[in-house]
Design brief:
Elements: H1 3-23, H2 27-30, H3 34-52, H4 59-81, H5 83-90, E1 94-98, E2 101-102, H6 104-109, H7 114-123, E3 132-137, E4 143-147, H8 149-154, E5 186-187, E6 201-205, E7 208-209, H9 211-216, H10 221-229, E8 239-244, E9 249-254
Antiparallel strand pairs: 1-2, 1-3, 3-4, 5-9, 6-7, 6-8, 8-9
Membrane topology: Multi-pass membrane protein
Organism: Paenibacillus albicereus
Keywords: Cell membrane, Membrane, Transmembrane, Transmembrane helix
Length: about 260
C-alpha cells in the first residue's frame, strides 16, 4: 500500500467533508433530524470507501458527496417556504407531559419509555413529573422541559412577569418587523379549557393559519382577522409568526417587505 497516497487522500477527503458540512449550514450540527442523520451517515460512508480503496478515483467519492449536499441544501431551502414539507422531513414536536400529567399514548407512538423520560428530566434538573408544566420531545430527540410556575420561582427563575420561553418579545416589540404595528400589545381572554401558563400558542406560521390552535382557543379565522386589524394587518400572508402567550397577549411578527 502506498502510504503517501493514502495520507494525501485522507487529508483531501477530510477537507472536502469539512467544507460540505459547513456549506450545509450550522443547522446540521446543532440539530440532527432523521433526514440530517441519514445524509451525514451517507457522506461519512462514502468518505471511508474513497480513503480505503486507493485504486478508486477521488471523483467517485467527491461527486456523490456534493450531490448529497445539494439535495440537503435544496430541501432545507424549500422547507423554509413550505411548512408541510418541513413537517414531512423533520416531523413535529410531541407533548409528553402537560400540566404534570404524562401522555402514555404519545409516548407509545414515539416509542419513548419512562427510563428515557426520567433520565432527561434529571438532566434538566427536575426530580418529579408533577413539577413539570410541559415536557416536549423535539424532532431532534431532545426533551424541552418547562417547569411549573411555582417551581421556577422556587429555583430562582422568573416569575409570571417574565417573557415566556421562546418568545423574545411581546406584541409591542413586533414593530421591529413592521412600522405599522401597534405600540401596545393586544390582550385576549383565554378559555379556561386551554390555559397554557407558560407555553405560547402559535396561531400563524409562515403566513399559514393554524386552525387547530384556533379551535382549542374556541376562536375562528374571523376573530383572528379582527385581532390582526389592530396591528394594521389585512392578510394572513403578511404575518410571519403570530402567537398568544399565557397572559393572553398577542404577538405578531410581520414579514419584511422585499
Amino acid at each position: 500500500m502506498d502510504f503517501g497516497s493514502l495520507l494525501l487522500r485522507t487529508i483531501l477527503i477530510y477537507f472536502v467533508v469539512f467544507l460540505i458540512m459547513r456549506l450545509m449550514g450550522k443547522r446540521e450540527i446543532g440539530k440532527m433530524s432523521v433526514f440530517d442523520l441519514v445524509i451525514s451517515f451517507m457522506i461519512a460512508e462514502i468518505a471511508v470507501l474513497v480513503i480505503e480503496d486507493t485504486e478508486r478515483p477521488m471523483l467517485d467519492g467527491i461527486v456523490p458527496m456534493v450531490i448529497l449536499m445539494a439535495i440537503q441544501v435544496g430541501i432545507a431551502f424549500i422547507s423554509m417556504k413550505n411548512r408541510r414539507l418541513r413537517l414531512l422531513f423533520d416531523g413535529k414536536p410531541s407533548v409528553i407531559i402537560a400540566g404534570g400529567k404524562l401522555d402514555p399514548e404519545e409516548m407509545r407512538k414515539q416509542r419513548y419509555n419512562l427510563d428515557d423520560l426520567l433520565q432527561q428530566l434529571r438532566e434538566n434538573q427536575v426530580a418529579r413529573v408533577a413539577d413539570v408544566e410541559f415536557a416536549i420531545l423535539e424532532t431532534s430527540g431532545k426533551l424541552s422541559v418547562i417547569p411549573k410556575e411555582q417551581q421556577r420561582n422556587g429555583s430562582g427563575g422568573g416569575g409570571k412577569g417574565d417573557a415566556p420561553a421562546g418568545e423574545g418579545s411581546s406584541g409591542s416589540e413586533a414593530g421591529s418587523a413592521g412600522d405599522d404595528v401597534r405600540d401596545k400589545p393586544v390582550q385576549l381572554k383565554l378559555p379556561v379549557s386551554y390555559r397554557f401558563e407558560t407555553l405560547p400558542i402559535p396561531l400563524i406560521m409562515d403566513g399559514k393559519v393554524l386552525d387547530k390552535s384556533l379551535e382549542k382557543l374556541e376562536k375562528n379565522r374571523f376573530w383572528l382577522k379582527q385581532q390582526l386589524r389592530k396591528f394594521n394587518v389585512s392578510d394572513y400572508k403578511q404575518v410571519f409568526f403570530c402567537s398568544v402567550d399565557h397572559k393572553g397577549e398577542l404577538f405578531v411578527d410581520i414579514k419584511k417587505k422585499p
